[in-house]
Amino acid sequence: MRRRWGRSAAAAVLSIAALLAGCGGGGGSSPTEPSPTPTAPAGQAPSGAPIFNPATLHEAKLDLDPAAWQALRDNYLENQYYAANLTIDGAAVQQVGIRSRGEGSRSEDKPGLKVEFDKYVPAQEYYGYKSLVLDNMTQDASFLRERLSFLVFEAMGIAAPRNAFARLTVNAEYWGLYALVEPVSKPFLEARLGEKSGTLFDYEWVFPYDFSWLGPQAAGYVPLPFQPETNEEKPDVATGLVAFVRAINETPGPSAMGPWLDVDRFLTHVAVENAIAEGDGIVGDQGLNNFYLYEYGAKNRFVFVPWDKDNTFRSGAWPLYRNLEANVLVRGLTADPAKRQVYADAVLRAVTSYVNPRWLTPQLESAYQQIRLAAQSDIRKPFTNPQFEAAVEGVRGVIASRESDVRSQR
To answer: pTM for the whole thing?
Structure first.
């Protein structure tokens, strides 16, 4: 769940600007030298990156100056980078940059981490990637919600990041159970969407926003709440986005929106959020949240990519048409009876095919058995082992209830 740290919108914008400005040079001295290990192939195709193999509980190791690690933890609300060496399953990459990451999940005890492979070594990559997220999963006592959510998105034809669980050790000390999350970046775009020349926006929640028209100036949309991740140096980076938002407000129906996005695909994305009982997505309780928006190169056509799905499987009873009036885009599309039916049919397909004990529960049990001991021995997680077990049982219950609940509302 990406949230600014309880500040007003104006204060949040200022703090984010300060954080972004502070992402410069590294802190601390050089990391300690790890024992010799194989080096990951820098140019390997991302589709073949073994670090995202979900069948494996991976071993991730960070080696860095202990003083730098302490400084990162002491200043966990800052985006200061520190030099480190990273090894995953024996494949090493040296002199990477690591920093604290997350919004509501930032933690001094168990920091979420962003790894930049080319922070100190120009053009350095790891399995074809320039960055990697080590998710601390401190907002999900089950550790399972994002894994299961992305599985459902994928099964429903919505490209989602891959993730895998890992035991993280820092300077030979077990630091807890983490998730290795594939970054939504150019390798992902090329592999999953077929091209990477367009503009990728990371949606950052700073105030409740609903795709309302904020005026023709790019500054109303970028760098917040839409943070450009590619083509950010171009002065017209927001031109297509502004035109998209204008169209949403002036001609919100499905026929007019058809040139801008695949309407049925988008409604399927929203339907999956309903099937997995999410209250913090495109039709979130506090406005838009937790997605990337990609504008295809030279096409003025957009697609949404899901992200940060730890606030899912909240209840087995979930209104079928919950929050469809919450933003201008969804409201305009589902005002059309045929498209409202597309949405409802997609929710039903999701629960009858995937969010049920026949399909998703085996996925849950497999992941639970994989992580159980690592989660129980994670002394830095912000919940107890009984709370972990209760959270897993709660997700089981939601999965068991979703199909019958949706059918009862049809």
So the answer is: 0.89
- Integer Cα distance of 348 and 272 in angstroms: 10
In the predicted model, is pLDDT for residue 14 greater than 70? no
The encoded tokens of residue 373 equal 């001991």
Measured distance CA(202)–CA(223) in Å, rounded: 9
- CA distances (Å), origin 187, targets 134, 196, 317: 18, 8, 38
Q: Could you give phi then psi for residue 133, rounded to 5 degrees? A: -105, 130
Q: What are the φ and ψ backbone dihedral angles of 52, each rounded to 5 degrees? A: -105, 15
Strand pairing of 199-203 and 302-306?
unpaired
Rounded to a whole number, what is the distance in angstroms from the first to the last CA of the chain?
A: 30
Res. 1 pLDDT band, cuts 50 70 90: low
Which is nearest to 84 in space by CA: 61, 52, 50? 61
